[in-house]
Amino acid sequence: MAQITGMSLFKKMGLLAFCLFGCISVLTSALTAYTLYDRLIREYTSKGAAIATAIASSSQEILLDRDAATTQSMIDQYLSIEGVAYVFVADSEGTIVSHTFVPEVPVGLRSLPSSKQLQILPELKIGSFGRVIDICVPVLAGVAGYVHVGMDKDLVVGYFWKAILDMQLLLFVTFWACVGILYYATRRISRPLRQLTEYARKLAAHDFTATIDIQTRDELNLLGRAMQSMGQELSLLFTEMNSEVDKATRELRDHMAYLSAILDNLADGLLVVGVTGEITVVNPAMRALFDLEDMDYSGQKIDEVFPDEVLSMLSGVRTCSLEIVSAELPLSRGRIGKAISSSVVVSEPVTQCLGGVVLVRDITREKELDQLKTDFISTVSHELRTPMTSVLGFSKIIRKKLEQAIFPLLADESSVSKPIKQVRGNMEIIVSEAERLTELINDVLDIARMEAGEIAWRDSDVSMGDVLVQSRNSTKGLWKAKGLAVELYVEAGLPPVYGDYGRLVQVVVNLLANAIKFSDESPIICGIKSDGEYQELFVKDRGPGIELDDLETVFAKFKQVGDTLTGKPEGTGLGLPICRRIVERHGGRIWAESTPGEGSSFHCLLPSNMSGAAVLAETTHCLASDRVGQRSEPASPEGGGGGKNSFSSSEQSPKILVVDDDAVLVRFLGEIFESNGFQVCFATNGEDAVRLARELTPDLVTMDIMMPLMDGREAIKSLRSDPVTQGIPILVITALSGEEDNGGDMALTKPVDETRLLEAARNLLGRRRVCKPCIVLGQRADCHGEDLSLMCADDISFVSEVDFWAKWGRDFRGTVFIPARKSGTINLERLTKLSGVSIVILPSYTRE
Amino acid sequence: MAKKILIVDDEVHIKMLLEQTLEELEDEFEVELFTASDGEEGLDFIQKKRPDLVFLDIMMPKMNGYEVCSVVKEDETLQGVKIILLTAKGQEVDRKQGMELGALMYMTKPFDPDEILRVSKEALDL
Predict the structure, then answer these.
(1) Cβ–Cβ of A385/B122 closer than 8 Å?
(2) Which of A30, A387, A552, B113 is a plausible cystine mate for B21, CB 3.0–4.6 Å?
(3) Nearest residue to B77 via CA among B106, B38, B49, B41
(4) Do B109 and A385 touch (CB under 8 A)?
């Protein structure tokens, strides 16, 4: 606070007064002195002029008479007048006749100029007189002479200085009188001010006992009183505030004690650190977990006290990451702890990070129990499998033996027909129950391993379209058996999902199997749609539906909804819980929706892997159809194909080149062809298709029309113009109906129906066009039995006659050479009906 | 020459079950069936008689199935022996290990006798 004293105020006022007085005195002195001087000079001048005029007028005759003595006596009288320095009279020639000088006229006055008028010389310096004003009056216009009167100018200057001095003296006295008065007045003002200042200072120092005593009866007194009442108010407030603060402090202390008691008695270890890594709280449980001494660790650096594992858990604290990190930590004495760490963030007044919290729980016992549980489950289920093998295996063998060897023998015995029926039924029960038990063991083991985190997930970018196609094929046995259809809807251009292909297939298979189980009418709709970030998989059925209350229950272990006494569905009740585990592990969620009586639908939301390949674009490749070692049903051709179309070995199975830019559709078509024993090659654009067709010469090409790089029409033209590929039949599969005239041999519109596709493919495969010029030679008797040798542009082969007619007959172009002795064995009439075929009968040369 | 199938399992019942399952092949294709009760015995038989197909259990005394399989697959003279691993260990890791050792197939117990018949016929080209 600034030191205000009375004197400083007075000094300021004094300095101001001094300056003011200085200015005033100098100005008034100057003005007065100037006025006085001016007046006196004029006064003296006019006085001198009057004297001179008086002398002149009264001494005309005297001067004319040149009466010097009279003149002298006259002028001597004038000398006694104040201010007159000299008087002299000169004649018309300027010669001084009489004067008042003693002893003689000074030199400077002897040659003064004379004029016919009054002449005033304002300043003359005369040796003994100093400065004078000379006034010259002519007598009778200078005829009678001139009168000169000198007025003493130094006298005027003397008066002038005296006046100034007097004035200054007066002002000086007045000034100091004013200063005195001022000092008194300021003291009167500054004393109460000093008192007020002092009082305010005491108030600031919380001294509310101070008083103020101002005697004056002016505004300062009012101010003083106001300040005193303010002081009292402050004192009151301060007292109240103090009591409030004391109360709050007490409460806070109690609260802190309560919190600290909680922390101290917390069963879990707690560690709180600041942003810079200094410890603020370590509770006794934490000290016990890490075997730390019982002391205060606050302020110490975390890395000096705790192992690196704890340090790494708090790495997010510096960046104020809101992520909750959980990990297992090794504790002292070989124990294991589960730790969870998070950042301490306050949002008021501004969002800032105060540090991090780590909670550690000793889970050694839980881990042991968990291990025990896992061991128990895997041991038990392993031990269960062995007897199950015997039960299932032997019951199947018994059933087989009964059916094959025993029942036929007893078929005629009417007395045993009922027991036989019973035995047959019972055997069925044993087999189906054994199968159910096996399924249960597998599921229990699966879910136990998932819960124990013992599943090895094999993650990669997965196309959900592939998953759907594979799942549909895997459940084919189930839906075919019930006469249902499964329709697939897959959005084109889906991004991949990062996950375990096999497990995702398990989810879809499970959902499909459930849908099939509860459906009595078609179709079951299964599909996948995407909104970019997530993909939604759905499986809809037209079954009885699920009650609203049960929509969540169905995902609980061993819960099967519905009346389990009357219509207990088959299954273990573990399928959906396993699905939920798998989906949640992939970062997705699974839920059910249903309208009772109309059916239900199951949905899974899975995150797309946007950073993965944009679409699982297939590189062109072929799948060998070597099915040994793969678990799948033997190829069962469908439609009217019959057995002759199931190709068991890859060497003779027809090769189909599937061309489509939609990777999912390619997989779908591939799966169909593959499961029917064909070899499949893929291409995703026209260019690749043409190149592959040249390299591999497939037996059939399925061609999409709308494709990048080279569309289907171009590709077909290109295939037809190349002698190597022109004979390959082409099946156009397009979304645009009425596209048969693209140059293909047959067309199907999307969505593709499996039966029609296979029918069309078989149809086209059966009539491979042979446009190459070929020659057929008759059989040689000594080799290849009944085969005919067939020479074409790029190969020589032997075909049986049946094959020739079946495969080559219709589209054959070329010459047939038939040895005469064989001509009877070949149907010549049929040959002649073929267009573009020449027949040459070779005469046989027999040895003489 | 008659084809030979060897069954190696320490469980008597499983051996019986497999024998009874494969009896059909004995009758139909004159396949000969042999059994062994542990890994060593099984390996000994394989080296001496070179069966065409071996059903091999993994968890057995003396020498486990993996060991037998790897010894057989490293032996140049036993290239024609096809091995199908049969086990109650249904874990993915075990399956992978078995396939890496060069087994033809890996089947988990309990198995379906008809499936056993099917794969045997396939493996023996019957």
Answers:
(1) no
(2) B113
(3) B49
(4) yes
Q: Is B79 on the interface with A (CB under 8 A)?
A: no
Tokens of A181: 């008065």
Residues from chain B contacting residue A392 (CB–CB below 8 Å): 110-112
Chain A from 450 to 509: CB within 8 A of any B CB: 455-456, 458
Distance CA A693, CA A713 (A): 15
Q: Which sign does the torsion angle of CA A48, A54, A55, A60 carry?
A: positive
β-pairing, A837-842 vs A813-819, is parallel
A340 beta partners: A326, A359
CA distances from A772 to A207, A793, A799 (A): 122, 6, 16
Q: Which helix (H) or strand (E) holds A373?
A: helix A364-401
CB-CB under 8 Å, B113 with A393: yes
- Tens of pLDDT, residue by residue over A751-784, are 677 778 888 888 888 755 454 556 777 665 555 4
Nearest chain A residue (CA) to B91? A455
Which residues on chain A are in Cβ contact (under 8 Å) with B109? 385-386, 388-389
| Whether residue A792 has pLDDT greater than 70 | no
Surface-to-core class of residue A296, CB atoms within 10 Å of its CB (0-12 exposed, 13-18 middle, 19+ buried):
exposed
Is-cis flag, bond preceding A496, omega within 30? Answer: no
Read off the pLDDT of residues A819-839 as tens digits, 9 standing for 90 and up.
Answer: 777 666 677 777 777 666 778
**Beta-carbon separation of A393 and B21 below 8 A:** yes
What part of B 21-50 touches A (C-beta under 8 Å)?
A: 21
For residue A201, give both structure tokens: 């200072």
pLDDT at A249 over 80: yes
> Two tokens at A47?
């006085």
CA contacts within 13 A on the Cβ side of A583: 26
Whether the CB of A64 is below 8 Å from some CB of chain B: the reply is no
